[in-house]
Amino acid sequence: MEKKVMDGAQTLIKCLEAEGVEYIFGYSGGSVIPIFDAMITTPTKIKFVLVRHEQGAAHMADGYARATGRPAVVLVTSGPGATNVITGIMTAHMDSVPMVCLTGQSVSWMIGKDAFQEADIFGITMPVVKHSYLLKSSNDIPRTIREAFHIAVTGRPGPVLIDIPKDVSAGAFSGDLNAAMELPGYTTRAGAADADAVKEIADIIQKSQRPVILAGHGVLISGAHKELCRLAEKLNAPVTTTLLGKGAFPETHPLSLGWLGMHGTAYANKAMCECDLLLNIGSRFDDRIIGDTNFFCKDATVIHVDIDPSEIGKMIYPQYHCIADAKAFIDALTPLVSRLNTAEWLKTIDGWKQKYPLKFKRLGNLKMQHVIDEFYKLSDGKAVVVTDVGQHQMWTAQFYKTDEPNNFISSGGAGTMGFGLPAAIGAQFGRPKDVVIAFCGDGGFQMTEFELATVALYKLPIKIVVLNNHYLGMVRQWQELFYDDRTSGVDLEGNPDFVKLADAYGIKGFNLRRPGDVKRIVKAALAYNDGPCLINCEVEKTDNVFPMIPAGKRIEAMIIEAPKAGGKKLEKPTGST
Amino acid sequence: MISNKKIHTLSVYVANKPGVLARIAQTFSRRGYNIESLVVSPAMDGHFSRMTIGVSGAANGLAQIIQQVSKLIDVLHCTDHTFDDAVVKEMGLIKISVDSSGRGEALQIAEHFGCKTVDLTETSMILQVVGDPAKIDALVEMIEKFKIIELVRTGKVLLARGAETT
User: pLDDT band at A190, cuts 50/70/90?
Assistant: First the structure.
């Protein structure tokens, strides 16, 4: 046996290896030099991806985790390196995405004394992490890494941050590599659903004539999409999903209502108003789904199934609830129920589907929807679709139907602009054989466009679609509808030529301007096999997303189609956004 | 006053680790709840601490916030004992300005409330009182006729009675 003493950083790499980490996304800096050195001196299969800004690293790890279900690691330096990942951590936290974020820190004895590049990242990130650590000793590394991964992926997943002072990573390790976890306060309630609660819920469901199943991100996280499909088919009950739940139930299935909420399908929202029973599995009743809390599913029996007890009664008080993992719950429920008499109900819903389909005009100026729809058709609906945030996000969710789990990746809770491109990079690293399409607006794209360098460097074959309306379209839409069309701070005058920008990174570019060229260029982009490509789409500047439920309003107030010019003025929404 | 009727008394059992108090405090403040009193001390097992927290704010959201506190990794459990049968005690030290002319009456009041005189000078005395928060309120009210120079209260601690656990 060799007697070489490992340092903290080498121990860290060994521990990450033991956790099965495939990728570290990060950026170097003074206080993490020992860790970067250990990546060279420790034999490891872990691949390091150098980003161009720390925010990109966090979104890449996020996209990787959403696409694969496995956590990735973020590694950044202290001070500004660490503060730059906060948006990414918060984005993952809002959407329950597992992530382990390692930040460098000054040497222990300088902490709190305003040392160079020192920031209290442990304190700053406290509200946006599932848990966090400030390491005190090199010997604590194995236990802490084990705990961090366990916490990140179990129960309701989330980001875990570990702040590592430089003397801890550089210090000699003399501890136990197999140190056990010490988490007396952490109980994962992923076990079987309470049998009595499930029985009670089954009895209630059996009495329903107009049921709706609402599937959230929790169904995807627990890998329960097949089980959900079986349950819905057995009950003959329609299923709607949240935005993040897209893929939990095939959107091309006859029982699918698509996704619901502010810009969801009219028929999903109408079903919320008229159902007699709502079975919510793994959704936290986001404010963009429920509109006005006091009226949401007012006359229906609401059942809430969630792994996180603190979600029960947070937004909506359900008549019945069950604290359980989605899969465990569905597995327990399915044998207890039988086919419901939903023929009338499904007929009503079909009527709504006929009357209020998602639609757009192919004539006139090029529409974002047209481009998205063509990508959907020509990629057979099989791509991993990543979006940024804004109008294009809603249209992508509407027109790129998702049939498979983990194929729709979007910042839902946080609504983080700049998420799209780096998240797509993470997704492509995680799913190298799949087609990854990043749909971005021109606003969000410019927030993290520097990661084009990462795309080019690793020759990632991502299709980067910039849906360029030269506006911050969603805010402009609100201003048009609710603020007498006083546009303020939304004109993105000064956009660069995105194709030239791509070219500067050595990335193939396409310009798309006319509806007549959509098919040809989308086809060419999908067929382009020699690395990444960017498609700049010059689209209608002032199009609006419908249906729309004004924030905070009752679902009944849904605006299904664009209001006629000169019509009744719309009230300002009372909800947040 | 500390012993407001709307104050809920929570007992939180936590792992004795850095940051746990900050996380709990943040959970309450983010939802607009104010921590009125807080006592933290080591539990029987030194790896853990017991916190007794008095919080004020809307009663209807509290059950959900208790769940949010409970799910913090270092929290073993968080229980609302407001309506439970429990022993609730607090200690107060009250320094009053009193000379020989008023001393007799002051000591009479002190005796009624079971206080101890823990400091006595020609011009002042410090009373030590132990009891439920309402009793300390009542003492403060009575003793206010003397000038209160300084006053400190520990905040309440609580233990469930009999077979119940805290």
Answer: low
Least confident of A29-43, A213-227, B79-93: B79-93
To the nearest 10 degrees (0 to 180), the angle between helices A343-355 and A266-274 is 140
Question: What residues of chain A lie within 8 A of the CB of B30, using their CB?
Answer: 127
ipTM: 0.91
Query: Which pLDDT score is estimated for A2?
Result: 52
CB contact under 8 A, A185 and B68: no
B98 & B65 share domain = no
Asked if A451 is an active-site residue, the reply is no
The per-residue pLDDT for B1 is 39
Output the CA torsion A248→A253→A255→A258 (10° steps).
60
A127 to B67: CB separation less than 8 angstroms, yes or no = no
Region class of B155: left (phi > 0), else alpha (psi between -120 and 50), else beta: left
| Any domain includes B2 | no
Collect all residues of chain B within an 8 Å Cβ-Cβ radius of residue A165.
Answer: none
Confidence of residue A295 (pLDDT cuts 50, 70, 90): very high
Contact of A134 with chain B, judged by CB distance below 8 Å, is answered with yes
pLDDT higher than threshold 90 for residue A308: yes
Backbone angles phi, psi at A252, to 5 degrees: -95, 0
Closest chain B residue to A152 measured between Cα atoms? B73
- How many domains does the structure of chain B reveal? 2
Which of B24, B73, B76, B79 is the mutation pick for testing A, counting most A CBs within 10 A? Answer: B73
Confidence of residue A116 (pLDDT cuts 50, 70, 90): very high
**CATH number of the structural domain spanning residue B79:** 3.30.70.260
Of A126, A131, A310, the CB nearest to B26: A126
Q: What is the mean pLDDT of chain A?
A: 96
Confidence of residue B59 (pLDDT cuts 50, 70, 90): confident
In CATH, what number is assigned to the domain containing residue B139? 3.30.70.1150
Same-domain check for residues B107 and B71? no
Break chain A down into helix, strand, coil percent, rounded to 5.
40, 15, 45
* Chain A: closest CA distance from residue B68 (Å): 5
Q: What is the domain extent for residue B15?
A: 7-83
Residue B4 pLDDT: 42
Q: How far B84 CA lies from chain A's nearest CA (Å)?
A: 22
- Nearest residue on chain B to A136, judged by CA atoms? B18
A408 labelled catalytic: no
Question: Are the C-beta atoms of A24 and A9 separated by less than 8 Å?
Answer: no
Question: Which of B15, B19, B72 faces A184 most closely, judged by CB atoms?
Answer: B15
A216-239 per-residue burial string, b: 16 or more CB within 10 A, e: under 16: bbbbbbbebbebbbebbeebbbbb
**Known catalytic residue at A118:** no
Say what percent of chain A tops pLDDT 70.
Answer: 98
What chain A holds in terms of domains, given with CATH numbers, is: 8-170 (3.40.50.970), 195-355 (3.40.50.1220), 368-546 (3.40.50.970)
Catalytic residue among A10, A36, A94, A166: A166
Q: Given an 8 Å threshold on Cβ–Cβ distance, is B68 in contact with A310? A: yes
- Asked if the peptide bond before residue A547 counts as cis, ω within 30 degrees of 0, the response is yes
Gap between the Cα atoms of A508 and A279, Å rounded: 47
On whether residue B102 sits in a domain, the answer given is yes
* CB neighbours of residue A83 within 10 Å: 18
**Selected catalytic residue, list A47, A116, A359, A569:** A116
Q: Which residues pair with B126 in a beta bridge?
A: B95, B119
